[in-house]
């Protein structure tokens, strides 16, 4: 456990890819096989234990165990702003340190779910009595379901490839299988000579970078294929062994969320894997992303939900055909077979082809990009015609050329501090626009300013705070910012009636008064 905690500390303190990979390598070189497997599962979010006790209940038990009054705990929490961290810090030092492995403590935590409340409380006390503070903090995060540290699959694969000498593509494919630490071993998952035999297994997704330069920087326009950039759920359809498996880009198995796709079981040949976008689609129109997200959040898909948010799979690549891996073939060959497949197996319209956009020059394509919002897309995907299907995010062959974002001028009204080492530094800002003569909060934004600007604003916040609500500060409505965002939708949950997609700070207008901020009506017009 001590080695795993050290790994987490190094990962959180590192900002460079090489440093993170080195930290993973160092851990895998000293950990035993069971601990390695659990580390992969936890850091990739493949399997994390279900919550045994809520964080508030755990904090209540900590007060009782430490014999401190509620007011002292609350005062401590106001300083730390992290409930699990406060819970850990108020605990007495362990009476006898127990040096056990990560796999030991994972087994300990998993069995808590089978215990009654009093027994569970006793077991947690016994763990607290023998865990050093830093290990106890991770234990509390895992017990309360609040463990959030995550490593990208690409970094994990890079580290495993360096210590095993195996190809990254093979390792990435193995890790995509539907495995758990209870159903496999480190040797079987990572060191096996062949990929794990699992018919449900998708391929690692190939991801694109955003194009921030002029497209002419990519060279000859005729070497590229352009498609609409659809705003849905990136997914893979896997048809093998007479079964259909639906995977999201986040590697979640979503087959039960999309019963419409069961038609692929008989409608597509076995040994077919498609990459594409899951879209809410009705009356010939792509519906907003929020529609499909709301559908996924439902525990039960009623008939009315299926009618309100029907879905299609809009395919843009063919990764496996007749049981053979096609990823190394050039895009134009994969595309030709994909077009033939969709034409031959329409699957009652549930399977659609993501259309390509003909163009002869970058300037002509820019005009098509400007029309993207008319199609409910967010821009264009640019793919080199002779490119293979890669693994992870890579520069060179795939690019997202997005439409220019919307912008809004807004007033800064609330600030919230971070956690732990940033507990006294304000990084989360809430903004408002005018609704008549009243300021109405409508979004939060967290990024876009320089370090110097954040420090300047933090000084201003401390001098201009009006009210305090725990970690939140209400400030004088004086500072004006320009925000950018990619989309906007109606929302019943928010007072403003709207919700923005990917809001971020563009600039701080130090010379503008709050009166120049935009009206809420202007934002609502964008939804018409």
Number of helices: 19
Q: Identify the CATH homologous superfamily of the largest domain.
A: DNA ligase/mRNA capping enzyme
- Helix fraction? 25-40%
Using the coordinates shown, work out and report the CATH topology of the largest domain: D-amino Acid Aminotransferase, Chain A, domain 1
Low-confidence stretches: none
- In total, how many beta strands? 22
Count of all domains: 3
Which structural class best describes the helix and strand composition? alpha+beta
Report the end-to-end length measured between terminal Cα atoms: 55 Å
Quickly name the level 1 CATH class of the largest domain. Answer: Alpha Beta
Q: If you average the pLDDT, what whole number results?
A: 90
Radius of gyration: 26 Å
CATH architecture of the largest domain: 2-Layer Sandwich
Major sheet: 7 strands, mixed
So what's the overall shape?
A: globular
How is the topology of this model organized?
Elements: H1 2-13, H2 17-30, H3 33-43, H4 55-66, H5 70-80, H6 83-89, H7 102-112, H8 117-128, H9 133-143, H10 153-164, H11 168-175, H12 186-191, E1 206-207, E2 209-210, E3 224-230, E4 233-240, E5 243-248, H13 264-267, E6 272-282, E7 285-286, H14 289-297, H15 303-308, E8 311-321, E9 324-325, H16 331-344, E10 351-353, H17 362-370, E11 377-384, E12 392-393, E13 398-402, E14 406-417, E15 426-435, E16 438-445, H18 451-463, E17 465-469, E18 472-475, E19 480-485, E20 487-490, E21 498-501, E22 504-509, H19 520-525
Parallel strand pairs: 1-12, 2-13, 8-10
Antiparallel strand pairs: 3-11, 4-5, 4-6, 6-7, 6-8, 8-9, 11-13, 14-15, 14-18, 14-19, 15-16, 17-18, 19-22, 20-21
